[in-house]
Amino acid sequence: MPRRLRELGIVIGDLPPGPNNAITDVPEVHVGHATIVRDEPVVVRSGVTMIVPRAGDIWTDFAFAAWHNFSGNGEMTGLPWIEESGLLGSPIGITNTHQVGLVRDLLVREAVELGVDEAFHLPVVAETYDGWLSTIESFPVGEDDVRAALRGAAPGPVAEGCVGGGTGMICHEFKGGIGSASRVAQTASGTFTVGALVQANYGARRDLRIDGVPVGRIIGYDEVPSAGVDPVAGGSIIVIVATDAPLLPVQCHRLAKRAAVGLGRVGGFGHNGSGDIFLAFATGNHIAARPATNHSLEMVPNEQLDSLFHGVAEATEEAILNALCAAETTTGRSGRIATALPLDRVRELVLEK
User: Fold this and answer.
1) Mean pLDDT of 318-344
2) Is the pTM of this model over 0.85?
3) Active site residue 57
């Protein structure tokens, strides 16, 4: 059975996780998936994942947000306006490279159908490439799939591994996909939760490290064959960070940048062919879409952000490892196989270090 990292007895970092150890530990952050697996008329291993802040009220109750481009060979829509305004005003979709437009357009239609009174909508949709295992050129994700991910978005435990947008993804030459984790951070201003969700589709086997152990170098290709995809020429990771701390956009940017620390701990280097794009949003302030007067805002002092930085790094690291632990061996197009990380071997290597 697929497992999470902590179910192997491996605990990383110093901060405690939230009750679900997932991005949904941030209050009113919901996650939904639509997973597409079929073999006819062509092989498809794809899908879409939705992150829905404020239990869906994000359309009119905006959150401060910011993004960071660690390696730009990828796509995430809506970023110029987030950079300009510092505001997130939509759910966040993650899918395959060729269907960002469809998911983005469906989110616009969703806003219109909900009667959201805005002149225009610039929703956020990100991608990684699943064309090694899935017939990406068949455009398998449909509007019904996007709606299913939105309607199915819920609090609580997050399905991980070969689900949603992560269905066809490969990570460090093992089967990858969706992963999530959270941390509870103490500050002088209060206790806050930081959560991360990743779509992991990057990396070389030789670079994979788990709690500092060079697992990827030890588990050779004679033990577990490579998925076959060039680990340097292509691959990407999307990291979405959420917190309930009252942060301003510039502080959200500081959090988004720290996702690179967690990625680096696992073995991500931001290769030339990789699209490593991170977005952080903070729900601690409420920003009305059409305010009648000035907003009253709060902010955690910059001097108190270190525990949140640690939380982002630790949650990102564990989210990637949860994606690897939960993913199952997958056979895709042309008989290509992405093998799951051998969990018993990982436990042996890490716990006996």
Assistant:
1) 97
2) yes
3) no
